[in-house]
Amino acid sequence: MPETTATVEKRKKRYGMVIDLRKCAGCSACTVACSIENNVPEGHFRTWVKEMEVGLFPDVKRIKLPRLCNHCEDPPCVKVCPVQASWQNEDGVVLIDQDRCIGCKYCIAACPYEARFINPETNTADKCSFCIHRLEVGQLPACVTTCVGGARIFGDVNDPESEISKVLSQYSVNVLKPDLGTQPFVFYIDGDGSLMAGDYSGLRLDHTIRLAPGGK
Predict the structure, then answer these.
(1) pTM as predicted
(2) CATH number of the domain that residue 140 is part of
(3) Total domains present in the chain
(4) What does the H/E/C string look like for 13-60?
(5) Which is higher by pLDDT, 27 or 213?
(6) Does residue 125 form part of some domain?
């Protein structure tokens, strides 16, 4: 189980996601389901799968790395928003108030995970919301329900009986860019150090990145 702060432990619920890289087939069913569920404009993505090569020849392996908002416990995007449009609910989900957002892009610059974009239809910031509208009626995020390999596990980290808590207790997990101290709540099984610490800025779905040991 990852270390948690006092703030997390005080929450009645703390939603998070585990992505098992051993099970991700790179089929992008999650991306399609998310785009349909959330009416994401063409050419933009709330979740996507990055195909990567890690290591140096001959010790090279190919990895599919699903990406999305990390719903950090200490989200830098919330801190920089000048109109409080980016905010965090009581369950730890980072959200955007579309009525308040002025499209200044401060949050996009502050996010170290390249998870945000300006929606060209609304001219406001957009990103993964863990399908908050589905959570409110007791349903799982669309990407979780459509993952053919069962690679995505979602739930309440503070509930010891939840599937995600049991998985976190059983497996060693990593987060992206842990040195930044943002405390991401998207965890990866089988993600090595070079993969988790890598710089993926400017990459898109059709790019392959090759990382040497240490993320260089």
Answers:
(1) 0.87
(2) 3.30.70.20
(3) 1
(4) CCEEEEEECCCCCCCCHHHHHHHHHCCCCCCCCCCEEEEEEEEECCEE
(5) 27
(6) yes
